[in-house]
């Protein structure tokens, strides 16, 4: 089992959640530091950026689900899967997250107070 931090269309109430994470164990809300959220297309992406934070949700998934998420996210091309520290309440855990592997110049940055992603 692995933990994965999601910040966009995989969150509860968004279109991809029901197809990929509806059966996964929801662990709660959290945030990661050192990343900024951008509207990179009709979906969001995060990139490393000092002083920024991203809100999201944490899930426990099995290996089959992680493979399905890799395919959805275009792991290795559109996104890169990386282990990050997620802060939840007063504790920190490590989880996988998908980081945008493209350009953000000219893309809309989503401010922390406007998160989560609204599409």
Write the layout of secondary structure elements.
Blueprint: E1 2-6, H1 17-20, E2 25-39, E3 44-61, H2 63-73, E4 79-88, E5 91-100, E6 108-110
Antiparallel strand pairs: 1-3, 2-3, 2-6, 4-5
Q: Any idea what the CATH superfamily is called?
A: Gamma-glutamyl cyclotransferase-like
Structure summary, number of beta strands: 6
When the domains are counted, the total is 1
Oligomer: single chain
Gap from first CA to last CA: 29 Å
Query: What shape does the CA trace take?
Result: globular
Q: Would you state the CATH class?
A: Alpha Beta
Number of helices: 2
User: What is the rounded Rg?
Assistant: 13 Å
CATH architecture: Roll
Structural class: mainly beta
Average pLDDT across residues?
Answer: 96
Tell me the fraction of residues in β-strands, as a range. over 45%
Description:
The chain has 119 residues and is mostly beta strands. It has a single domain (2-104), classed as Hypothetical upf0131 protein ytfp. It is built from 2 helices and 6 strands. The chain has helices at 17-20, 63-73; strands at 2-6, 25-39, 44-61, 79-88, 91-100, 108-110. It has a 4-stranded antiparallel β-sheet. It has a two-stranded antiparallel sheet with strand order 4-5. The mean pLDDT is 96.
């Amino acid at each position: 089992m692995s933990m994965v931090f999601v910040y966009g269309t995989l969150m509860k109430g968004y279109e991809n959640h029901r197809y990929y994470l509806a059966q996964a164990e929801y662990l709660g809300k959290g945030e990661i530091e050192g990343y900024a959220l951008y509207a990179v297309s009709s979906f969001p992406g995060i990139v490393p950026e000092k002083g920024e934070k991203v809100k999201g949700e944490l899930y426990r998934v099995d290996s089959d689900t992680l493979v399905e998420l890799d395919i959805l996210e275009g792991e290795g091309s559109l996104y890169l899967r990386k282990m990050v520290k997620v802060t939840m309440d007063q504790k920190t855990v490590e989880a996988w997250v998908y980081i945008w592997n493209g350009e953000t110049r000219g893309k809309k940055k989503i401010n922390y107070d406007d998160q989560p992603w609204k599409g």
